[in-house]
Here is the input.
Amino acid sequence: MSDLDRAIEQLRACRLIPESQVRELCYKARELLIEEGNVVSVDAPVTICGDIHGQFHDLMELFRVGGDVPDTNYLFMGDFVDRGFYSLESFLLLLCLKVRYPDRITLIRGNHESRQITTVYGFYDECIRKYGSANVWRYCCEVFDYLALGAIVLGASSELEPTSSGMGDMTQSTMPVDDGELETEVLNSRGEVTMSTYRPRQRSSSDASTDSRNISPPRDISAAPGQTAAPTRTGAPGTGASGDGNGSATTCRTGAVLCVHGGLSPLIDSVDKIRLIDRKQEVPHEGAMCDLLWSDPDEIEGWGLSPRGAGFLFGGDIVKQFNHLNGLSLVARAHQLVMEGYKEMFDGGIVTVWSAPNYCYRCGNVAAILELGEDTSSGGTVARSNGEYGRSNGVGANGIANTVVSPGRRYRVFEAAAQDTRGMPAKKPVADYFL
Amino acid sequence: MALELQPPDGRKRVKVYELRENDWFDRGTGFCTGHISGDVPRIYVESEDEPNRVLLETKITKDDGYQKQQETLIVWTEQSGTDMALSFQEAEGCAVIWEFVNSVQQHLLSLAAADDALSDDLESYQSIVLPAPELGNLSDIEQIVRAASMTQAGRDALSKFIIRDEYIGKLVPLVTMAEDLESLVDLHRLCNIMKSLILLNDNTIIETVVADQIILGVVGALEYDPEFPTHKANHRQYLSDQSRYKEVVPIKDPLIRRKIRSTWRLQYLKDVVLARILDDPTFSVLNSLIFFNQMEIVNHIQSNAPFLRELFSVFDPRYTDIKRKDDAVQFLHQCAAIAKNLQAPSRAQLFANFISHGLFAVIAFAVKHPNPAMRTTGIDILVALLDHDPVMMRGYMLKAVNEKKTPLTDTLIDLLHAETDLGVKNQLADAIKILLDPQIPLQEPIARAGPDYFKVRSSNLLSDAFVQQHFDESSKRLFQPLKQIANRASLNDLTFQEVTLYSHLVDILTFFVRQHLFRTRNAIHSESLAPRVAQLLTAPQKHLKLVALKFFRTLISLQDTFYQALMTHNNTFGLILDIVYETMPRDNLLNSACLELFEFIKRENIKPFILHVVEKYREKLENITYVDTFQNLILRYDQMQGYGAEADSTLFSQDDGTPRRLPLNGQRWQGVKELDAAEEEYFNTSDDEDEWTQENRTTLAVGVANGSASPVVKPLVDYPDDDDDDAMDTKPEELADQSAEAQPLTVGDIQVEPSPEPTTSEPSSPTAQTPPVPERLSEKRRREEEDEDELVKLAAGPKRRSSTSSNSGAGFLNRKKTLSIGSIGSVEKGGTQGVLGTVTSSAPPKRIAINIGPVKSSVSDNATCGETVSSESNEKENRDDSQAEESG
Here is the structure.
C-alpha cells in the first residue's frame, strides 16, 4: 500500500495526515494541475457535484450514493472548504483522490478557494486550529491557485440508461408506452426513482435496441395535491438552435456541458476565451476569472448587478446565446444553495447543483449530484487527458450538425449523513493554553 | 407620575464602547452621570478631553436589558438595536450607576404594571417559577423552559428567575444522579434544559455556567445530546484536565486566574460544545465575554512589571531551561494572537511594552530555533507586529542599521537562504516583503491609532536616501543567490531547495517592482537581475517558469521605459516564445499564462513590445497558428508599418517639451541595442514627478493585469489611435512612451470616453449580439479611474498592500476618498458571524421536511417555495460575502 493509499484511508476515516504529507501532496497536486487547461475536458460518464463546504461526513454520503472513486468519475465544481467543520479533511481527501486517480476526478475552483475568503469563512481558522500554524493553509492556497476554472463534459448521452434496480427499488413496474427518450430522472438516496421526464422521440433509426426499457413511470411519491410531474419542456429539445437547412442536420448531437462554479461572464463569449486567462493568481475582484467563480443566473434579461458584490447576474437570453454559440447544451454550476439539491433554469439551459445537505448543519436542504451518461451509440470516445489537444473540442459548432440535444440527466438526491455515522460536528479545541 | 428617584451623585470615569460589526468600538473615555430631567431618566457620558462633547446620552426604558457583568461593566442594547457597553474604572462607580438603572427600571416597570394593558402578560411571566430541581420534575421543567423561550418576555422572565434562584447550580447535582441511575432519558432532558438556558443568551447565566463549581455539571449534561443518542462526548474529561493550563511565570492575582479559566471554558463552549447550535446573539455574547476577559487579562499582564521582567528574563542566555524558553515563546505568541483582537491603542501599548522588555530578542531566539514549529511561532509573532504597524517595525529596523547593529532583515534574509522548512521559508519571505517595503502606508496606522501615535512614531522616520540605501543593500544581500545563477550552465540540476528559494526570491522581486518600481530599479539594474529571472524561464520546473513569467508580465504591465528596455534588451521574449512552442498546442496553465501575456500586449497595444517581438521573432510568431493571438500581433505591426508618416507632426508636437534624444527620422526601430549606458543612467535618475507618474500608472496597470481577459481594460496610456500609428515606424520606443508620459494627467479624461480603437473593445464582442452589458461595466470603467476602488481590488494579497498602493494613487490624483479598511480582527469575526447569519434560528436545527417529489415542475407550489427559501439564504450569503469583499 503506497503512502498515498494510506493517506486516503486515513482521511476517509476523517483523520488528518501529518503536515509533511500535506506539503508533499500539495506539491504533487500542483505538478498535476499545472498541466490542466483553464477548462478541463472531461468525457462522460461523469458525476457532477456542487459545493461541499467542509461537510466531510456528507461527502462520504455523496460517495456512498454516487459510487466510490475510482468506480465513478467525479467532477467537483469548487467550494470544498469553509463553513463546515471539516474543510481540511474534505479538501485533502479530494486532493489525494485527484493525485491518485488524476483521470477519474476533476476539481475546479470555487469562489471559496481563495486566500481572502478562507480567512473570513473558517478554513484558515481550521488550519490554525488543527495544525497549529498557517503553513497548511498556505500550501492549500497555493494549490487553489492552480485549480482549473471550468470543465467541459463531452460525449454525454442524450438519453438515460434505465436505472438499474439493484439498489432496492422493488416497486418496479412494467414499462409503460414508449413515449420518448428518458431525459431526466430524479433518484432518492436509496436509488428509487422519484420523477422522470421524457422528451418526444426524435430519431427514427439507430436506437431500436434501447426502445424496450424497463423504467418506472413518472411517480409522484410525495403526492402533494395539485402538484404534477409535468415535463418542463415541450417541442424541440435543445437550446433553441434550429437547423438551417443543412443536410447533415439529421445527426443529432448531444451538446457539450460546461461546468463552472459561478456562471458566465460578459467578458467571455466563447469557451476558448477562458483559455486566455492566466489563472494562477488569487481570485481577482473583477474580470473574467472573477465572474466565472462568482456570477449567478437570475430571472432577468441580459446582465445585472450581483448583490454579492462580485460577478454578475445573467438572464436566460444570455445562457441561451452562450450555449448556442459554443455548441453547448447545458451549463452546470454550483454556488447557490438550492433546497431541492438541484434546480434547472431557462428551459434546462443551466442547472445549479448543490451537494452540501443540511448546509451549515442547519439549513435543512437536501443535496444532489448530477450524473451524465456516456453516449455509446457513436462509438468510442477520445481518451481524455490533462492538457487536451484540439482546443475547440466540442465547441464552436462549425460545420457540425446544428441540432444540439441536451444530455440525459440523472439527479441523485441525498440527505445529510445519518447522525450516528458522522459523530457530532464540532471544531477541534485548542490543546494547551496559557491565557 | 413623577419619578421619585434620586440620580446618583458624582461623576464616574468610564469608557464607552459600541458594538460595530461585531467588534467593540471605543467611543472614548469620559465621565458618567445619571440624570432625571422632565421625568426622563438618562445616562450621560461627557468626554474627558472635551468636557462639552457628549459621548453617550441614552434614555433608560424599562425594556432595555441592562446587564452588569463582572464588577465594572454595564452592557445593554439601545432602542436602535446597537449594543453598548460602559466599562467603569472603579467597581464602585459601576455599582452606583447600576443601582440607578435598576431602580429606574423597577420604578418604570411598576408604573407600567399599573396601567399597561399588557401587564397581565408581564405579570404572569414575572412569576415564572420552575418546579423544584428534581429528577422527577425534569419533564415539566423542560416544557416550561421551552415554552418560555418562545417569546422575548418569557425569556426575560425565565432568565430573571434562573439568576435569582441560582437554578443552574441546583440542576448540576442531577447530572451525576441521573448518571448513577443510568437514566438516559433524564440526561437527555437535562441536556435540552441546559441548551435552552444557555441560548437564553443572558450574560449572567453564561458567566454562571463557566464558573468553577458549575461548569463540569453543565458540560456533563451537554455530553448527552438527544440528537446523537448513541454518542457521548467527553467534555468533562477535557475541561477538568488541569495540565492543559501552562504557566511560564505564575500569575498571582486570583481574579485574573479565574478569568483565564473562564475564558478558556467560554472558548471551548463556543467552539466545541455549542458549535453546532449557536445562534447569532449567543455567539456574540460569548464573543464579547471572551473579548472583555482577554482585554483585562492582557491589561493585567502588561501593567505587571515584575511579571514581565521575570517572563523576559527566561530568555537570558545564561538561563538554561530550554523547555521554559519554548513555553515563554508560546506564551508571547498567544498574547500576540489575543492582541490582534484588541483595539489599536491597547494593542500598541502591549506591543510597545513587550518590545521595551526585549521582544525582538525573543523573536531572534525563536527564528533560529532548531525546531521548525518554534521558528513558525517566532515568525508569527513578528508577523503580528508587522500587521499591527509595519512603519514602526521598519523604524526599529532602520534604527538598528543606523546604530550599526545587525538589523532584523539581515537575520531574516540569511534565514530565508538557509531555511529548509518550506512553511517557515514561506513566512520568512512574507515578512521580508513587508519589512523591506519602503513605501510608507501612512493612512492606515494613523487612522487606527490617532494623532498621538503619529507623533511618537515620526521620530522613527529616516531620510529617504537612507531608506533607499538600506533597501539597495538589503536587496543585494537578498537576491544574491539569484545573481549566482549566472554561473550555472544549465538549470537542469536544481535542487528542490533551490527551486523553492528562487521562486520566493522572484516572487519578492515581483512584489517590489509592483509596489515601488523606481526604488527597485537600482537593485535590478546593478545586480542585473532581469537576465537571471529570464534564465529561470528555461528551468525544467514549470511552476518556476510560471513565477518568472509572472515577473515579466508585471514588468510589461508597468508600461515603464526602463523595464521595457530590460525586456527588449535581451532574448526574454524569445524564451517566452520557446515556452509557447514547448507547450503548444496543449492547453495548460503555462500555455495560457503565455497567451495571456501576449494578449495583454496586443490589447494594450504596447508598441515597443509589438515592434520588438514582431521584428525579432516574426518567423516564430507566424508558425504559431493554433490561436490567433500571434497573427493579430503581426497584423498590428504591419498596420503600424503600413502607412506613411503623416501623423508625425502630432507626435512631435507632443514631444517638444521632452528632453529625450530626438529619433533619427526614417531609421527603423532597431530593437535590442537601443539603450546605451548613458541612457540607462538617465532612466535611473529620472526626476521625481516622473516617478510619481509611473508609480501611479504602475498601480493602475497592475490592476488591469489582474483583470485578465477583461474588455473593460482602458488604455493606460494615450497612445495615438490606430490611424495615427503610422508615425511609429520611424521612432524608437522611448519616444512613443515619452509622448504619453508627457501628459500623464490626462489619463483620466481619456478613459472616460470609450476608446475608439476597435481592438480595445474586441473582447467585449460577446455582447455584440447579446443584450447590452450591464450598466455596471461602464460604471466599472468609470470607477477604474478613481484609483482607490481599482486599487483596493489589487489587494488580492494581504490587506496592508491595498492601503499601500491606494496611498500612492490617491496622493497622485488628489482624490479624497476614504478607504474603510476594517481591522482583520473585525473582518474575521464578522465572517464567522456571517456563517451563522446564513440561517438564524434559536432552536436546535430542524430538518425541514422536503418533498423530493416532482418539484421540477416550475409551477408547483413546492418548487416555488423552495426557490424562495433558497434565494433568501443566498441573499444572506451574498451579504456576508460582499461584506468580506468590502472589508478586504
